[in-house]
Design goal:
Shape: globular
Strand content: under 5%
Order of helices and strands: HHHHHHHHHHHH
Structural class: mainly alpha
Radius of gyration: 28 Å
Largest sheet: none
Mean pLDDT: 77
Number of domains: 2
Number of strands: 0
Length: about 350
């Protein structure tokens, strides 16, 4: 299917806000808009309500059921299938743009990667996704750990982004090539070969998802498992050490935190840590200098450690004050009853 370029203007702050939201979901803006366009084309409607004022809830006939919210599993399936479609389109664009005059081992390898190997692997992912979200697996999905499925989605989004980047850089090089040494294509062959290896890493993640069980939100076991999962792909030694110290802190203090602090940690702080660790792991895989990403991870870990420590200390102090108040109240009651001797008696 041919691709077209769509350009339009938007407010800079709106763009930045959307980019941040897409990064947190493991998506690119292109993927997000593609999902939106696909849904509009399929349903023939804007997939959310647009109003100029606060709408009044219309009365519904008793025989019509309330419209259910969209199934999160369906959203995940749509995102995964959209990414697979994006990958196939990019591979087709690269393959069809290769000039017949370009020869050499690197270009032949690129032809095979884009025309066969990577397309076959993308098709395998599509097939796995359809099996995963088939009707017969609907009940089983609810019993699995959704964080592992999010990891699978993030990894596939990284693959789609890298292929898209190769497409954007390689096609102009091929179009401007006038003959001679074809060594300029070697880096692109290496990047596509690395993508092929990343595809191979998707299957173990899906196997971990099938072997997982859903964890109770807010439990120390869930937080511990989340930390270990986020740290699994990180190689920088001092970041892993900091994560081990954070895990020790979680095991020691997390159960003593109040519900509001736990909710804030899980909704914001741990999500930020997941994102920074993901970016560090990606930098490591791409052979980039991980120093800046690692420093950001350490700052996030330090903030988390401080919040958990302060929250645990505050709870212990509150518990201690409550205990002291109870003891003082019992002593006053005993003195009034005459059960305590000497100077501990209440004044008459």
């Amino acid at each position: 299917m041919a691709q077209v370029m769509v350009n339009f203007r938007m407010d800079e702050n709106v763009k930045k806000s959307m980019e941040q939201a897409c990064r947190e979901m493991g998506l690119s803006m292109t993927t997000a808009f593609t999902i939106y366009a696909t849904k509009v084309g399929r349903e023939k409607r804007i997939p959310f309500e647009i109003t100029a004022e606060t709408p009044r809830r219309p009365s519904r006939p008793p025989d019509l059921p309330e419209r259910r919210e969209e199934d999160p599993s369906a959203q995940k399936r749509e995102q995964l299938e959209s990414l697979c479609g994006e990958i196939r389109r990019s591979l087709t664009a690269i393959h069809t743009a290769i000039p017949s005059s370009v020869t050499g081992l690197s270009m032949e390898r690129i032809r095979l990667l884009c025309g066969d190997e990577l397309k076959d692997k993308a098709a395998g992912v599509t097939s796995a996704v359809r099996t995963l979200f088939s009707d017969r697996n609907a009940g089983a999905l609810r019993e699995k750990d959704p964080d592992i499925l999010n990891e699978y989605l993030d990894n596939l989004a990284d693959i789609a982004k890298e292929i898209r980047n190769v497409e954007g850089a390689l096609i102009p090089v091929m179009k401007s090539w006038t003959g001679g040494d074809a060594g300029a294509f070697v880096p692109y062959e290496q990047r596509l070969a690395a993508v092929s290896r990343e595809f191979d890493g998707l299957s173990p993640v899906l196997q971990r998802f099938w072997a997982s069980t859903a964890r109770k939100q807010g439990s120390v076991q869930a937080v511990e498992a989340r930390l270990r999962q986020s740290a699994a792909s990180v190689e920088t030694a001092y970041v892993r050490t900091a994560l081990e110290n954070l895990e020790t802190l979680v095991l020691r203090h997390y159960d003593s935190l109040d519900g509001q602090t736990k909710a804030r940690l899980e909704a914001h702080y741990f999500q930020t840590l997941d994102l920074t660790l993901h970016e560090l792991a990606q930098a490591e895989r791409n052979g980039e200098d991980p120093g800046g990403k690692a420093a950001l991870c350490l700052r996030t870990i330090n903030v988390l450690s401080q919040v958990i420590s302060d929250g645990g200390q505050a709870r212990r102090e509150l518990d201690q004050r409550s205990l002291e108040a109870e003891v003082a109240a019992l002593e006053r009651l005993a003195a009034l009853r005459g059960d305590l001797p000497g100077d501990m008696r209440a004044d008459s």
